Amino acid sequence: MLKKSINQSKTRQNLPQSTPPLRRLINYGQNYRTQIWQATVCSILNKIFDLAPPALIGAAVDVVVQKENSLIGKLGVTDVFGQLVILSILSFIIWGLESVFEYAYARLWRNLAQTIQHELRLDAYEHLQSLELAYFEDNSTGGLMSILSDDINQLERFLDVGANEILQVSASVLIIGAIFFISTPSVAWMAMLPMPFIIWGSFAFQRRLAPRYANVREKVSLMNGQLANNLTGITTIKSFTAEAYEAQRIAAQSDAYRQSNRHAIALSAAFVPLIRTFILFGFTSIMLYGGMEVVAGNLAVGTYSMLVFITQRLLWPLTRLGETMDLYQRAMASTTRVMNLLDTPIAMHSGDISLPINQVQGELVFENVSFAYQGREPVIQNLSLQIPAGKTVAIVGATGSGKSTLVKLLLRLYEIEDGAISLDNIDIRQLQLTDLRRAIGLVSQDVFLFHGTVKENIAYGSFEATLPEIIAAAEIAEAHEFISKLPQGYDTIVGERGQKLSGGQQQRLALARAILKNPPILILDEATSAVDNETEAAIVRSLEKITQNRTTIAIAHRLSTIRNSDCIYVMDRGKLVEWGTHDELLVRDGIYGMLWRVQSGLK
Q1: Dist CA 167 CA 15 (whole Å)
Q2: Which strand ranges, in their side-by-side order, compose the sheet holding 521-525?
């Protein structure tokens, strides 16, 4: 199923964002044409058999009134009882077939809705994962969650109910219209008279509802974004006693969503009463004019009975168009948002060169690299440095000097603007992204642990690892001791973002995760910045073991953790200003020397 979803996403024809949402949805659903046709045929057949009972009632009235002169009598069955038996048998068959096709269309449409919902969510999520980090900086997590969850659910609701309603109403109009014009052309125009007004009203309401529901989707996206942001920052909210303030902000967002819905409801609620008015004219016209035609002897009683019943079958279902149009407009507003996400271009593409992890030497070269975040001043300016394979280098500098940005550029989380970065003499833009990132293990100061067990978090990215391998990695990271004391050991749930563990414990799990990955290149981005001295000492001991025979880049503010590096680079405002060993830099007495004296308490 997953492979099918990925392939579908790749072969889907991208349409301009100005394309009507229904066409974009049909374009997306081209792989489901067989299921759509099956469901459509079952919906139409169900409606055909659903429309048969009025004809049977008319035939029964004709038998009772005309007896041997009825339509069935003219076919050769003159006995009234025999005619009624035939009608009864036909009724059983027709009602049975109607039930069969109702079951069939309900099952087909609902399964199709669930399938499209499932695969559309997967496609959207997979595409989202492929977008560069800059996209996530410009869009809130809650807004994206709203697209992946609520918007796709809106589409599922329409496919589940609305598509069948539209088909059955259309089938009713065509079939009943044909019956009227064939059987009683003199009164057919009365039943069909409301149709142009109903169709006109439907399109008029659709045009006016579309922007209102687009606004509803935008408001719910903003509200979800605020909710997600607040839940993530609940500790900050509590520590600053800002609960009342945040409750007011959520109330304002929720009220904006409510008012936006009210604006849409004010129009959508008027649809059904308007349609009922048009329907009333058609129904009363048939009842009055047709009755007078019977009295005048121009119309048979059975035919009149059928016309009255079938007119009701034609016109009253149109009242459900209001609900269907409501589902349709909500779904189209959501479709626009989902398709816009799917059509967001991927700015960063994988290269074609494969570099298996067992062939990586680990030599890194930054050559005249420049980079700036969108709309900001350059963070990296014409930077060049070489990191030999198997060596440990450190990068230090003030906050905002560009240290962590170098790591993001190396991982291709962002694309460099000028220059080149190479791994083992291959430009990283030419390497397959998966090979590049598998070769690099990152331990960040901002540790992210998933809601799950300790074991699952250590094995994240190394999903086939055995428990002994996980324990061995934890022992090297000096995490095994505290893990063993947890209530369920390696099966202990760490909570969302690891909130059940201390900062030092989280850091050591992150280190164990990198050790288990066993990458040829290890990046430590402020890995000891938020831990106590004891934890720092434990991490430093671990690093002495795991940095052997692998390229290591250590970014640190605490200079004591990197003093034994083979080379230390000092950055200032996106440029390299000093480099050398710890002792060489102290002799030079530049920026590094000043930072060392401050941290060591020397003046």
Answers
A1: 26
A2: 440-444, 521-525, 551-555, 392-397, 567-572, 575-580
- Do the beta carbons of residue 167 and residue 43 sit within 8 Å? yes
- Which token pair is 484? 């063993």
pLDDT tens string 171-190: 877 777 777 677 667 666 66
Classify domain 357-600 at the CATH class level.
alpha beta
42: CB partners within 8 A, 6+ apart: 101, 104, 105, 108
- What are the domain boundaries of the chain? 21-342, 357-600
DSSP 216-252: HHHHHHHHHHHHHHHHHTHHHHHHTT-HHHHHHHHHH
Q: How much is the pTM?
A: 0.73
Output phi, psi for 555, to 5 deg.
Answer: -105, 125
Q: Which CATH superfamily is domain 21-342 in?
A: ABC transporter type 1, transmembrane domain (1.20.1560.10)
The band of 73, judged by pLDDT with boundaries at 50, 70 and 90, is low
**Integer Cα distance of 123 and 119 in angstroms:** 6
Phi, psi of 511 (to 5 degrees): -65, -40
The predicted pLDDT at position 602 comes to: 59
Distance CA 386, CA 422 (A): 10
User: What does the chain come to in residues?
Assistant: 603
Tokens read off for 258: 């409510």
By CB neighbour count within 10 A (0-12 exposed, 13-18 middle, 19+ buried), where does 113 fall?
buried
> Which residues are within 8 A (CB) of 209 and not within 5 positions of it... i.e. 6 or more apart?
264, 267, 268, 325, 326, 329
